[in-house]
# Entry
Amino acid sequence: MSQIKKTKRIYLMGICGTGMAALAGLLQEKGYQVCGSDSGCYEPMNSVLKRLGIKVFKGYKAQNVIETCPDLVIIGNVITKDNPEACYVLGNDIPYMSFPEAMGHFFLSEKRPLVVTGTHGKTTTSTLLLSALEACNLEPGFMIGGVPLQKKRGFGTGTGEWFVIEGDEYDSSFFQKVSKFLFYKPFGAIITSIEFDHADIFNSLQQIKESFSKFASLLPRKGILVVCRDWNTVMEAACHAKCKVITYGLHEKADWRLRNVEIGEKNTTFWATDPNGQNHKVEMKLPGKHNALNALSVMALCHSLGLNLNPVIKGISGCPGIRRRQEIKGIIGNITVIDDFAHHPRAVQETLEALKGRYKGSRLIAIFEPRTNTSRRAVFQSYYVSSFDHADKIFVRQVPDPEKAPENDRFSSQKLVDDLRERGKKAFLCDNATDIINQIIKDMRSGDVYVVLSNGPFEQIHERLLDKIREQLS
# Structure
């Protein structure tokens, strides 16, 4: 650690990842000289890094590290042990850390971290929590795995005592095979949900529960853990906490209960019943019951921290959302194109249900790319079929880079389309984004809502589709 204290120049391997780019920005904001490398960079982090003026080497070469002569290297979890830069760093005794280890060392040790975790809703809930704390004039630091629409970046050092951080259960690095959130020193935390995901690193739901249980045990006795009562898996993990546990959800025994959710064209309205039996009406911009639950968890945590609920609710109500989460990319001639990060079957289902509620009377057309390490695998093959029930039409792209999944464990886009058709859905298999756009244009109607479901750039399909719609309507 004595070497770390003398650090001035920091090099980030895998710098274009959502979390790594945010970390680069935080380090620069703190006065460090920052640069890094990646195999490619896409939005929204490409714009963030360009705006910050942070140099990014395209591709991994030992010469990049030699040229920059860093005092410390931060190695992202996309980096493998045979990466040429990693080999050089480890072979030449250059100090290095994982991403979550660096967050804990440089930022969280100085603050009171509020960690938002769970299989689903982490990014949105973190953004709602940030908005609520800012409405209370608390100026928290934050690191979120996305870009809040009210800001141009998903990070900030803040001036207050609190630090909002999205806690990911994914592996930290090739040399630290433990969940990232185990480095985050939580004072307060939210666990939204726990179910099987990340099939490339977890062998079972039990393994995931064990990781969340370890996280829950990290909270200090004076800390606060807020958990969703609707999930048995979450309640099992919460049993390992030494601190006070507050529950929320639809469950009749939850401390904070969600009631009377109404999804309108512009707002979602709901009532929250607190532990004292008082009812609070909330109107928020984000659609869907799942987002109402996310907001409820924020209310429960903030109230437990002793904050006034009036500005908390005001902050939640004013939160416009986050990029790549039900984000409207454009509206042309009464046709709407939406971008969403959803890829897990439950996330797909809840996103489409929320959008169907908001756009009543419109055709909802889903465009799905199975691109994540888990969705490329067969583990959720059968679960996806019912996830698209709220879509009027579904376009499924062929799996990109299928060789990234084991040959005997690969997702089949063709089978999903066949199963959807058996379910009575209008489903179509497409080779790529161009194929999808060409098919869409043939049957485009006024009022249509197109939602793109992918965790990647998807061949810039959003902009290309909008351009094609504009061309057809001109």
Notes: The chain has three domains: 2-98, 107-318, 327-473. The first strand starts at residue 9 and ends at 13. Residues 289-304 form the longest helix (16 residues).
